[in-house]
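[User] I have long wanted to understand how a fold can be written as tokens. Those tokens are not coordinates but codes from a learned vocabulary of shapes. Could you go through the record with me and say what the backbone is doing? Thank you; the sequence and its tokens follow:
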Amino acid sequence: MDDSSVLAKFLKQCPFAVLTQSVIRGLMRSEFDAVFEENRSQQYEKKLIFSTVAMAVADVTLRFADNFRQAHTKHKEKLRVSLTSFYNKINAIELQTSEAIVARSAKRAADLQDQLNFVPYQVLEGYNVYALDGNHLQESEKRLKPLRMLHDAPLAGTIVARFDLQRQLFDRAYLLEDAHAQECTTLDRVLDDLNEGDLLLADRHYCILNFLRKANDNSVCFVIRQHGRFKGVLVGKRRRIGRTETGVVFEQQIKTSDAADALVMRRITVELDEPTRDGDTVIHLLTNLPKAVKATEIADVYRFRWDEETGFYYLTTTLTCEVKSVSEPKAALFLFCMAMMAFNVRQTVFAALYAEHSEELVNDVSHHAISVEVSQYTDGMLVVLDDAFWDRVLGPHMEHGTDRIREISRAIDLSKYRKSKRGPKKKVEKPPRTRKRTHVSTAKILAQAKNQTP
């Protein structure tokens, strides 16, 4: 039986498993070792090659394996090391390597999207718009010896992620091993990765005076929600500009202080028709966008910040970005970054769908349905379709690979993968908290245990 006939059988049964595998091989399979070599400082390769570790962990993020132990058992022949050595490697993966995986996967995904003729969304004409938000890893189990006698919940770290709103990709990750570190400590690095003409959307946690000044000096634009601690000096009268879908929009100038060289910004106020989930009825946005951009446009653009929240939601519900048994900070952060890479793979799959199907049909496709099919069928498919098969199907050049990816996408009947519709949710009253919940930083506890004399 020839390759086309074999592929046709799997396309009929599990087309998204085939499409996802094609994208993975076109996106990152040959990149992991290069990323490791370019970013390592203390780690080295001997028997255990980084790409084999990454592909094993990718099985966890894509839900082909429930945990690292299962991933090791599945890839034991390629890994060629004991389970202990496998864990030691993952636990020591340096933060810059994990961050580089996200950046490289986003770059490769963007290149592949272009080759698939995907047209990026136009969020605000003339600007590259990014959202910035943080995600604290959930409390882990207390498997490490220094954590066993703790009453508090150990946290393995925090991720501050930048989200490319045009391409819907996580394109930067700024990792904080100390879970108690403030997210704003990453802002200098965030600014280093922004260029003139970029626009950053962020919540009030990032309303830091020095950051606003540096961004403005570097010709980087921002729309950041005003924090309560940032008072500023209001200038002139507040003017009513108009309405958006969510409320009435007003505008007024605001200075950072009374000093002559103080930064002058526009303050966009939205009096909301419905309160936020925190109960706020009014929000204030600070921006240095020129007056040519209307206040109502700015208020609408800020709402795109929720696309990153949606991205985090899909990381949690359709991929495995956290495993409670993983307590080591570096391992937990590496797993999360691999999940962000897997999300970028998923978004490239959607780019392939947009290239061959109507936008209305693609928008109605369920992420959950794709995730279930990919995790259910991929293992069996790869038993039959080995690496040599995929090399023949996708070819040595990416141009041939993208043609095949579009061909696979064209063959999928999207009506079988529609989202489930449901009615409005009933409001549920949450019980009051009976005790204060406290957390500790796993990285701090491990550092203290390391410094203690035996």
User: Anything to note?
Assistant: The mean pLDDT is 90. The chain has 18 helices and eleven strands. The radius of gyration is 24 Å. Residues 329-356 form the longest helix (28 residues).
